Amino acid sequence: MKLLIKSGRVIDPTQHLDKVLDVFIEDGVIKDIMANIEMDNVQKIDAQGKIVCPGLIDVHVHLREPGFEYKETIETGLKAAVAGGFTAVCCMANTNPVNDNQEVTRYILKKAQEVNLARIYPIGAVSKGLEGKELASIGELKEAGVVALSDDGNPIYDSGFLRRAMEYAKCFELPIISHAEDKKMSPDGVMNEGKISTKLGLPGIPKASEEIMVFRDIKLAELTGWHIHIAHVSTAGAVDLIREAKRRGIRVTAETCPHYFSLTEEAVEGFNTNAKVSPPLRTRNDVEAIKQGLKDGTIDLIATDHAPHHPLEKETTFEDAPSGIIGLETSLPISLRLVEEGVLSWSELIDKMSCAPARIFGLLAGSLEPGKVADITIIDPDITYQIDPSQFFSKGRNCPFAGWGVKGRAVIAIVGGKIVYQFEKIRTS
Ligand code: DOR
Fold it and tell me: Could you tell me if the CB of 308 is within 6 A of ligand 1?
């Protein structure tokens, strides 16, 4: 099977490439990147005016299967992934049963293989049942194929327990992803604590609840010498803590999500349950600090925290609605606003959405170097449209960006040298 991508603007930060070139793929592997490759008997893609880059990777998604198939399935989640330009995703462990054992990991991998669209990398739980008390079977999870450990959705409160988990995870070279939020500080909190929570009469969540845990996690990374990855950074204070820890050479990496650099707590006004998320949307000052953190490298990567819920679950009072925002089909156009605003260059954005995720979690792809697997995203940078969640492949409709006018979208996703998505068409065979 041969594929030739002609005349696209090839951007690959791993090779410092940003040039109009052709990409030749054979047997699922990148064979050559050069100007004017001429060849017969190959499938050709005309990529003139398009960006050709390493396949986007989202290291933080909730696919809900097993257990919550009414919210999302591995099939609908992976369709949403490729439609958003993602050729690989890492799925969180808060399923039912929890992914704290080999059976669940194997089930997820088998389902994903049947769906055969984006690659899937399961994340195992740190603790059994996400209860923060007893270690999950970490060695067995590694053997079954998890790439990291996380109790995401739940913070791990017991520092002694997390220390042991990190020491254990270190033996298996599995990074720990932290949901850094001390929910005990504001057990009833549903949005950022501040003027707007007071105005709406909603219980708030202070920024300190995130920063206390980020500080603790950094200390444990220092103590154990192991890698902690801070999920969904939402506050300026957390960005400062991570910047300082990196300066001191501590093994910490961090992600943020499109909603934390494009929305503020004001999105909650009108009791908009689609803007309810954990951690909550913060203030303009935090948004600016997160952009700065992305720009100066404090925040390594952009992930979505794609968290689908059934539309009826979100159709209730703000207090009762579950937290979560979907992101697979909006992440690229919302993140491209950073390029439009001059916060990131194209190359920096692609690094944060593909190369850095691959580098940090040791995943295949994230590079177009000859010899690498051919996972490629082709982006039309000029196409303009309105975000319309009713058109999403995801079952989730909990999207606070509905109606936004955006520019740019993935038009082709290639996984292992095969076209799995072509604007509005998902491969069916
Ligand atoms: O808002 C959120 N929803 N944050 C999380 O960390 C978990 C997620 C979920 O699973 O719904």
Answer: no
Mean pLDDT of 95-101: 98
The type of residue at 133 is K
State the average pLDDT over residues 199-217.
98
Average pLDDT value for the chain: 97
324 touches ligand 1 (CB under 6 Å): yes
The Å distance, Cα 317 to ligand 1 centre, comes to 18
> Token digits for 195?
């003027």
Instruction: Check: CB of residue 163 under 8 Å from CB of residue 135.
Output: no
Closest atom of ligand 1 to 179 CA is 6
What amino acid occupies position 57?
Answer: I
What pLDDT, on a 0 to 100 scale, did the predictor assign at position 429?
42
Distance of CA 182 from the midpoint of ligand 1 (Å): 14
- Give the strand pairing for 204-205 and 191-192: parallel
pLDDT single digits (tens) 249-304: 999 999 999 999 999 999 999 999 999 999 999 999 999 999 999 999 999 999 99
Query: By the 8 A CB rule, do 17 and 11 touch?
Result: yes
List, in order of start, the domains of the chain with CATH numbers. Answer: 2-51+373-426 (2.30.40.10), 55-361 (3.20.20.140)
Q: What is the pTM of this model?
A: 0.97
- Closest by CA position to 231, among listed 277, 172, 262: 277
- How many CB atoms are closer than 10 A to CB 319? 14
Please tell me the residue having the least CA distance from ligand 1 atom 7: 153
Ligand 1 pocket check for 13: Cβ under 6 Å: no
305 is annotated as an active-site residue? yes
Instruction: Measure the CA–CA gap between 381 and 379, rounded to whole angstroms.
Output: 6
**β partners of residue 359:** none
Q: What is the pLDDT of residues 19-57, one digit of tens each?
A: 999 999 999 999 999 999 999 999 999 999 999 999 999
Atom 4, ligand 1: residue with shortest CA distance:
278
Closest CA relative to residue 319, chosen from 181, 191, 194: 191
300, 305, 351, 375: the catalytic one is: 305
